[in-house]
Please model this.
Amino acid sequence: MIDVPIRHDWTRAEVLALFDLPFMDLLFQAQSVHRAHFNPNQVQVSTLCSIKTGACPEDCAYCPQSNRYDTGLEKEKLMQVEAVIEEAKAAKAAGATRFCMGAAWRSPKGKDMPYVTAMVRGVKELGLETCMTLGMLKDEQALELAEAGLDYYNHNLDTSEEYYGEIITTRTYQDRLETLDRVRKAGMKICAGGIVGMGEEVKDRAGLLQQLANLAEHPESVPINMLVKVEGTPLADNPDVDPFDFIRTIAVARIMMPASHVRLSAGREAMSDEMQAMAFFAGANSIFYGEKLLTTPNPEANKDMQLFARLGIEPEKREVAHTSEAEEAELHSRLAAQETQDRFYNAAG
Ligand code: SAM
Ligand code: DTB
Ligand code: SF4
Model:
């Protein structure tokens, strides 16, 4: 087995050189790296649930949930905790090991926190891994989620820093990096990736992956989404991505972040079985599973299971992640330090 170092010092030229490799050379390298860290015949399965849908104040040009675009989406209030737990039970029964709860928020409000933390606790009790994506977080919100037992927080960089302003104007790239930093400091695992097909160039795909791989620790989960074109959004008429260019992005992500799960995320509804198989060969080892992403369709669960069977892929079992006493004590001391700091600032301000 090859020895694959985990690097955090990728230059743009090195990343572009990977994108420039002949396709077969790139795929061979990606598959070799993949085998150094993972069983190539296992894919992790996560199910998404939109816990609060639509009416988002942000202007992300790809998103059907932004209130700036008329996409015909029915907005919905924050779901009841019990209803979310019912959805999680169904996801578990269908074979998912992680339940990802997404909210169309710029950031959660204080009044939302008791509900979302109750969702985390309830879903965790079912024996599922938990993930949330709620927008930008403050320090204390990140700590509250970590204390509730949230395993992963998803917050995507979406694209390169240079192209970002073409897609979103209501929050900065730096805002996103700061939220990722807070998630890490609170002790949660990071899920961060981006979207291919927004009109970006290869250098922007390289820039996105360079940012992610040069973080102090690689995100444990790297979702690579293919743009789902939704009528009414500014990107609705974007040209299709060349499937090979999409696969190249997966392969480069795999090579740069060898021990991370790379997720073949949104966009599978528009992909052939052959394209998905090629994405798995390029190193993707996670999918969103279940007939809906947040608001748009995803392949039927039984269709995915049939594809897995045809490829000899088995769903990855969940990691048994018991929090050790030492980790628990460390989390409590971080929370106590944060409270002291808050009291100090409140008294000072
Ligand atoms: N509102 C929160 C936020 O933006 O951080 C969480 C939910 S948001 C829908 C999560 C991610 O979904 C986005 O960052 C984006 O990468 C992805 N996404 C949204 N709409 C998409 C689309 N039409 N196609 C592909 N990915 C999309
Ligand atoms: C991610 O990278 N992709 C997911 C998840 N993280 C939250 C969301 C995809 C959303 C696709 C459009 C929709 O269904 O609304
Ligand atoms: Fe809102 Fe998230 Fe959609 Fe952006 S991606 S518009 S923040 S729901």
